[in-house]
Amino acid sequence: MRIAVLGTGMVGRAIAGRAAELGHQVVVGTRDVDATRDGEWGEWAADHPGITLAGHADATAEADLVVNATNGDGSLPALDAAGAENLAGKVLLDIANPLDFSQGFPPTLSVVNDDSLGERIQRAFPRTRVVKALNTLTADLMVHPRQLADGDHSVFVSGDDADAKRAVTELLTSFGHTDVIDLGDITTARGTEMLLPIWLRLYGRLGTALFNVKVVR
Amino acid sequence: MRIAVLGTGMVGRAIAGRAAELGHQVVVGTRDVDATRDGEWGEWAADHPGITLAGHADATAEADLVVNATNGDGSLPALDAAGAENLAGKVLLDIANPLDFSQGFPPTLSVVNDDSLGERIQRAFPRTRVVKALNTLTADLMVHPRQLADGDHSVFVSGDDADAKRAVTELLTSFGHTDVIDLGDITTARGTEMLLPIWLRLYGRLGTALFNVKVVR
Q: Which residue range or ranges hold the Pyrroline-5-carboxylate reductase catalytic N-terminal domain (chains A, B) (predicted)?
């Protein structure tokens, strides 16, 4: 599959690296290709020779599946740059969380309660099939879940399109996830985005990001 | 221990019944004793002869530990009725969630993000030692956790007073809980109250309330 990963941070690199390892054709999208190349990107890219770098629009144009791995604040601008036409009809795996650090730590959510970033993105790009997933755990666990309790923990998918959720679930399963729970339509992204406050407190309390929740039933 | 349980609903009865079973002296507080007695209370009370019913203030006056098992909307009025003097110095286990059903299902939270019901209660009763706990699972699992995965799932305590959290943790452990996680001060109640949206969606999806999260680490 041709996968475009928008975002060059920890999450973007984790998804891109793992998807390439699994045989997908991966391009990473960035706002400014030259600025990214001039940064710390070079070292990572040298270790991942099959992965190309492009502007958001070029990265998205030829993709079968697009991953939003930008910051919450940067998500709508990045997707605007990717372009509604380029995104039309495609599955968009949205991993971003609308964290607001402007008042310090712990951050609050800039979209919350009766709305979510996932819904905002779906409304802004109605022809795109948005699936919220993987926003509830740390990057390394998103792509290598078996390192924790042999994968015995849960992740969630939220979205309006059943086929798109199936495609994302297959990708997550290929990463090693064993318990992908379909919560329902895109409004259920409120629930997973609102997990962030307790996630951040547990992170502080446990002293490691290598944890996740399991829905015991 | 003398325990006052404010609230006669499902949560109040579950906590009261279990605490009495474990040998505590239990009184249940209600807004209107006569109205409660005239309702469906009688049948339950007949099965729990050791448990007495009283107004919120009378119930609270002699208690060592007070449990807020009222609805989110009713919590501050019930605690006002219990009285700041009666609550002074005491441990208050706050189980309520600030759910707002005025726009239908799923409810939103009436306090959220940069505040929580737990914090509001702590601010309103500064001499009371508020501990938020048990608001993240169904009543029957609060008090009989071993019925699910032999108790291999997590609950949380949030509060400013270490001794109060210890007292609540002991009570939870006596109920059968095996993994009580101290999240930190009362502001961490935001995180557990914000679990409600995903809890409600999982409830719909799984078709049972007999589930809980486990923090896998």
A: 2-98
**Residue A108 CB neighbours (<10 A):** 19
Q: How many residues does chain A have?
A: 217
Q: How many whole angstroms separate alpha carbon A3 and alpha carbon B189?
A: 39
From chain A, pick out residues whose CB is under 8 angstroms from the CB of B189.
none
Relative orientation angle of helices A117-124 and A72-82, to the nearest 10 degrees = 20
Give the one of B113, B198, B206 whose C-beta lies nearest to A192's C-beta. B198
What ipTM was predicted for this assembly?
0.97
**CB count in 10 Å sphere of residue B85:** 11
pLDDT in tens, B83-97: 999 999 999 999 999
Domains of chain B (ranges plus CATH)? 2-206 (3.40.50.720)
Pairwise CA distance, residues A157 & A135, whole Å: 10
Question: Encoding tokens for residue B14?
Answer: 């579950």
Which alpha helices (DSSP H) does A90-195 contain, by range?
117-124, 139-143, 162-175, 189-193
Cβ neighbours of B87 (radius 10 Å): 27
Interface residue of B113, B193, B208 to substitute, partner A, most A CBs within 10 Å? B113
Take residue B17 and report the two structure tokens written for it: 């019944």
CA max distance for chain A: 49
**SS3 assignment for B182-194:** EEECHHHHHHHHC
Per-residue pLDDT of A119-170, as tens digits, reads 999 999 999 999 999 999 999 999 999 999 999 999 999 999 999 999 999 9
d(CA A201, CA B76): 26
